[in-house]
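Title: Comparing notes on inverse folding

I've been comparing how different people in this forum approach sequence design from structure. To keep things fair, I'm posting one structure and asking everyone to reply with a full sequence. Here's the target:
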């Protein structure tokens, strides 16, 4: 905020949690951000992770879930994806802070003489580095504006209070609060209030103990967010207020609700946004601003706080018609690996006003070997695939199982089942097409088989095969869409001939075989600026068969579903052509929310 050259001080809101992990801290942080945006504030967010990894680039999906890719190519914690989706912002790799990044910076400074020969210690060297990082990144615009800095920076501290590996971050936060002043620093603590016993009594001890440990390190919560099964009772509120020394008005019940999009509504109903504004001395507690980019968002927001957001929450609960989408991937046992894919599907289903049902299919179960070893599992997997209205084949590094995926693609292509292949999924579609339509039985990727007679997928020349961390072709890249007979891709992306989407891959379609594939009907309608990298494929003879080398799921938003996923869900529900007609021939994401309430 700038008035007559004066810049208002940045406001910092720290969110911690205690007792156990998995209380939903990431959702709580994102939801607080949505509420503050409804008060007209610009919001940014930083995620602190105490692990020693520099980033999520080399972490196993089994260990960590999805590696979310931001605009600048950084591979970060999946919570950053949740911030982007809820707050409608584009964050950077620097918005993800890990112990590894902090130590790397401090040690590099020591080697280059930054500390002028002084002894380098945890305090002040490491704690100062943490504070400087947060203060610097908090000011960077994240909402598409090149000039307007955020008003509030949300800081999520990973782990739970009492963990040894977050101690240096807690010390840094205490020093940061002293540096900027308590009027510019706010602490929200997420505590657990379980219901136990035959009397279903709400127990406050877990929350009390985590607050006590927080106070021991010099941080006193200004707000308590209490995770519970049911709404907090009056007696529970009074007890927490006295024993945790937090006013009743600043204690928020975060009880179980029907869907996660109701969390911002729950916080707003309890007045959290206004209380935070008053804590920061901001005169915006009565302001009501839209949080979605819809034509009628402003009108809905003026009639009710988060009135535009409520449409999303209501649609999930009231949608009656169902669309079934199969996700074919090796990590189906850990759904966090496909978090952004699932969210993108939900965004599309919300807009189309459909209830989304997901069938998880392990490609190994589709292979002939499984039929021999476990026929029931084989039949069950094929039943799940064939019962779906549409299929997504996502790309996850380390996920091979080529033969099962090839069989899934062949089923979709020959049965005209709507199909969307992402990154590695697009490459599998090329492999299947080369084998089936060109008769190249040995066609494969050099990633899976270095010496094969038909290398249809090859190693990308600009990356390194030896070093794994941060060597991918990653981040936002341009795709030029060819306008040939109004391709499906051109219609999905609203007639845009150049789009920018996020990549994360090392291998790509061999450009030498593209003319042969196109002669058989597989069209590469999206390419990079040089025309040598194939980035969108489609088969025009099929209702919906699309492959993207980029990851469209990383840019999907609740009020603006990403076009490939929206097209897939519409095609799966047999509504795509009707929707295109309603939108004037070119898909307009968000119009479904505006048109049908």
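Reply #1:
Here's my take.
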């Amino acid at each position: 905020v700038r008035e007559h050259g004066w810049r208002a001080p940045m406001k910092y809101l720290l969110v911690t949690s205690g007792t156990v992990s998995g209380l939903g801290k990431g959702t709580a942080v994102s939801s607080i951000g949505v509420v503050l945006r409804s008060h007209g504030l610009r919001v940014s967010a930083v995620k602190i992770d105490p692990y020693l990894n520099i980033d999520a680039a080399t972490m196993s999906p089994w260990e960590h879930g999805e590696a979310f890719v931001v605009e600048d190519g950084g591979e970060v914690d999946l919570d950053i994806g949740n911030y982007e989706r809820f707050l409608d912002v584009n964050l950077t790799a620097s918005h993800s802070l890990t112990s590894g990044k902090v130590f790397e910076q401090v040690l590099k400074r020591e080697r280059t003489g930054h500390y002028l020969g002084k002894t380098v210690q945890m305090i002040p060297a490491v704690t100062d580095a943490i504070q400087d990082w947060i203060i610097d990144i908090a000011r960077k615009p994240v909402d598409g504006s090149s000039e307007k800095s955020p008003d509030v920076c949300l800081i999520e501290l990973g782990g739970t209070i009492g963990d040894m590996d977050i101690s240096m971050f807690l010390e840094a936060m205490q020093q940061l609060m002293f540096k900027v002043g308590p009027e510019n620093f706010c602490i929200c603590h997420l505590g657990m209030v379980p219901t136990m016993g035959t009397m279903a009594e709400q127990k406050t001890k877990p929350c009390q103990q985590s607050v006590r440990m927080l106070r021991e390190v010099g941080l006193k919560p200004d707000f308590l967010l209490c995770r519970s099964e049911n709404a907090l009772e009056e007696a529970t509120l009074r007890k927490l207020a006295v024993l945790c020394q937090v006013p009743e008005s600043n204690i928020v019940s975060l009880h179980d609700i029907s869907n996660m999009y109701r969390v911002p509504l729950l916080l707003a109903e309890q007045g959290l946004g206004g209380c935070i504004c008053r804590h920061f001395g901001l005169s915006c507690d009565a302001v009501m601003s839209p949080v979605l980019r819809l034509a009628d968002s402003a009108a809905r927001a003026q009639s009710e706080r988060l009135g535009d957001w409520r449409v999303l929450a209501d649609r999930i609960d009231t949608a009656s018609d169902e669309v079934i989408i199969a996700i074919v991937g090796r990590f189906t046992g850990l759904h966090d690996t496909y978090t952004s894919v699932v969210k993108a599907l939900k965004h599309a289903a919300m807009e189309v006003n459909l209830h989304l049902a997901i069938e998880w299919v392990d490609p190994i179960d589709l292979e002939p070997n499984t039929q021999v070893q476990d026929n029931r599992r084989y039949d069950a997997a094929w039943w799940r695939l064939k019962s779906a209205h549409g299929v997504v084949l996502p790309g996850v590094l380390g996920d091979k199982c080529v033969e099962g995926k090839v069989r899934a693609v062949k089923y979709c292509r020959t049965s005209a089942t709507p199909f969307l292949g992402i990154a590695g999924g697009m490459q599998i579609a090329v492999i299947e097409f080369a084998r089936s339509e060109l008769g190249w039985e040995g066609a494969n990727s050099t990633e899976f088989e270095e010496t094969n007679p038909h290398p249809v997928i090859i190693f990308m020349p600009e990356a390194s095969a030896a070093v794994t961390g941060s060597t991918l072709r990653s981040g936002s890249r341009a795709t030029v869409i060819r306008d040939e007979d109004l391709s499906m891709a051109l219609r999905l992306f609203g007639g845009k001939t150049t789009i920018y989407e996020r990549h994360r891959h090392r291998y790509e379609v061999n450009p030498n075989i593209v003319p042969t594939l196109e002669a058989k009907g597989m069209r590469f309608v999206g390419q990079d600026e040089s025309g040598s990298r194939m980035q969108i494929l489609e088969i025009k003879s099929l209702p919906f068969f699309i492959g993207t080398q980029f990851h469209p799921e990383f840019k999907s938003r609740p009020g603006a579903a990403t076009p490939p996923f929206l097209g897939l869900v519409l095609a799966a529900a047999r509504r795509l052509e009707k929707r295109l007609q309603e939108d004037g021939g070119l898909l307009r994401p968000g119009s479904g929310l505006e048109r049908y309430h």
